[in-house]
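hi!! sorry for the late reply, been swamped w classes. u asked for the two structures so here they r. pasted raw, havent cleaned anything up. first the sequence of the first protein and right below it the C-alpha cells
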Amino acid sequence: MSASKKEYGAYSFKSAFVGQGKLAIWKVVIIAFIFFGIAGLLSIVIAPIENHVFAEIRSSVLHNLPIGFNWTNYEYLKSFSQPVLILTCIYYFVFNVLLAPITEELFLEDI
C-alpha cells in the first residue's frame, strides 16, 4: 500500500495489480465452480470432525440461547407458516447476499 501512496498519492492496492487484465467470463465461471467445489468438499470432510470436536460446546451454548437461534431444530421451524419462512429467506438473501456486500464495498472504496 505504501508503494501506491508513492506512485498514485493515495493508499490503495493499485500498484499490486499492475498488468492484470480482465478474464473472460467463461474463465471466471469455471474458477468459481472450482472454488465452490473445493468449499463443498471441505465442508463434507471437515463438518464431521467439527461436530465431534465442538459438540459439547455447541450443546451448552444452544441450551442457554432462546429456541429460535437453533436452526437445526426442525420441529420448531415447522411451527411457522410457509409464507413466513419464505419471507424470512427472501429477507436473508436481500440483506446478506446483496446489500451487505455492496455496503462493504462502498465503505472500502474510501480506504
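now the second protein. again sequence first, C-alpha cells right under
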Amino acid sequence: MMTLEQYKEQYKGMSAAEVRGLIARSAEFRSETEKLYKSIYHNHLNKSCGDCWIDAYILIMKGNPEKLKAMQEKRYDLRAGAVLVDPKDPTKTATTHNITDELAIHHLRIHPTCKRLFSVLPDNWEEEVYGKQEDEAAANAGAPADESKAEAPADAPAEEEKTADGKKNKKSNTKK
C-alpha cells in the first residue's frame, strides 16, 4: 500500500476529469485510493458510486497531512453518525471523519457516558483517559489514611494530653 505522502505526490494536481478517467480505467488507482481511505477513515468506500471515489480522492488530497496520519494511527473509533461536541470549545467537535485518539480521550474525560458512542476502544482506554488509578491506590495502601490515628514510634517522646479537669497528663506511645 502507498503511504499518504506517496499517494499525494503521485496524484497531485489532477483535475476532476482526470480523476474520473483514473477511476474508470485504473484498477491500481482505485485500489490505492480505497486502501488509503479505509486506513484513514476506518470506513469502507462505496465503490459503486462514482462521486464517492472523487470525494475520497479530495478528502485524501486536501486533508491536513498531520491530522490524516493521526487518524490512520488512531485506536479509538466512533460509531457511524455519532457526533461529540464540547460546548466550551467547538473546535473539538468529533465525528467518524475527524476523530483522533487525542479528541477521543478529551471527550471521554469530560463526558464518560459517551463511551457508548465508540465502536472501537483500546483495551487500556480507562488508563489512558483517567490515568493509572490502581497504581496510585496500591502505592497509598501502605500509608495511613488518617495521620491523627497513626501510631508514634515507641522511642518517641511522650505527648501531653489534657484531662477533663484541665490537668496535663503524659500520654504513653506504646500500645496497651
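hope this helps!! also noticed smth abt the second:
The beta strands are 77-78, 118-120, 159-162, 168-171.
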